[in-house]
Amino acid sequence: MGLVVWIAICLLNMVFLCCYVDDCYSVGLVDDMTWYDPYEQFYPTDQVRLLRLWDWLGIPHKAKKQVWGEVLVIIGFLVDPNAMTATLPDDSKSDLIRHVHQFAHVARRRQTLHDFEQLTGWINWSLNVYPLLKPALSNIYAKMSGKERSHAPIYLNKAIVQDLAWFESMLRLVWHANMVIFCDASLTGHGFLGTGDGPRFHIFFWEALCVLGALVWYEQCPARLTIFTDNTNTVNIFDTLRALPDYNPILKAAVDISYSVKY
Questions:
Q1: Among candidates 175, 188, 215, which has minimal Cα distance to 86?
Q2: How many Cα atoms within 13 Å fall on the side-chain side of residue 202?
Q3: CB 3.0 to 4.6 Å from 48: which of 2, 6, 34, 109, for a disulfide?
Q4: How many angstroms separate the CA atoms of 211 and 213, rounded?
């Protein structure tokens, strides 16, 4: 399959084509469709080009496996190219949560090395879409280290149970990014720009938050500090330490920083 994919990419210029074992997938524009005679159906153009390449090379394929759409399941993950997301299907996530919970709460708190390996393989697979949850495996790998007998029982210590409980709780959260932040820096300054469907606050909120951002940076290199801002309301809330409830967390965070800095 590797050579076939090379032909498609390098000779047919299908630059977005990807392959995992024997599953090929790619992206295309919604209205870029082509009729494929053998299956009497329209498919994305690059998909038809790949099918015709397989036909020319004599590679067999089936109509039921030629799927396409705005969201597809690829190697077990829901991939949405428009939202730029890859997520676990609800049933897969529920199965993983159930298995983790049962593993951590087994009677007598013992599992075999084989069971440990099965669990870590499953969790590692999920890390493709939840990479920040990798710390959940630290104590598990430490416990498995040096053990070779597949069916020998291994005791689940408190650290493993806590790690798995944390992993389970984080999996239950629904994470959706609805804001994009661009960051950049130079030797003389740095900043960030937020765009998208972020919190619908008044510009005053963002002015105050910008001052707080300056304080957070300042905390790392304490010195006498002057902050300039062109918003009078922002000056007033930091001067009087009085603000509406929506803005009060910014003031409290600023006070926390002031107390933590030692001159």
A1: 175
A2: 8
A3: 34
A4: 5
Q: How far apart are CA 165 and CA 136, in angstroms?
A: 9
| Element counts in the chain: helices (H) and strands (E) | 9, 11
CA dist., res. 70 & res. 63, Å (int): 18
- Name the one residue in this structure whose structure tokens are 């960051």: 183
Q: Using an 8 Å Cβ cutoff, are 87 and 77 in contact? A: yes
Token pair 């902050």 is at which residue? 227
Instruction: In whole angstroms, give the CA distance from residue 109 to residue 134.
Output: 22
In this structure, are residues 78 and 86 in contact, taking their beta carbons and an 8 Å threshold?
yes
Taking the CA atoms of residue 217, residue 219, residue 224 and residue 226 in that order, the dihedral angle to the nearest 10 degrees is: 40
* Average pLDDT of the residues in 206-221: 82
Token digits for 57?
């090379």
The pair of structure tokens assigned to 238 is 């930091």
pLDDT digits (tens, 9 = 90+) for 116-156: 999 999 999 999 888 888 989 989 999 999 998 989 888 99
The 3-class secondary structure across 56-70, one letter per residue, is HHCCCCCHHHCCCCC
In terms of DSSP bridges, do strands 33-36 and 85-87 run parallel, antiparallel, or are they unpaired?
unpaired
Dihedral sign from CA coordinates of 36, 39, 41, 46: negative
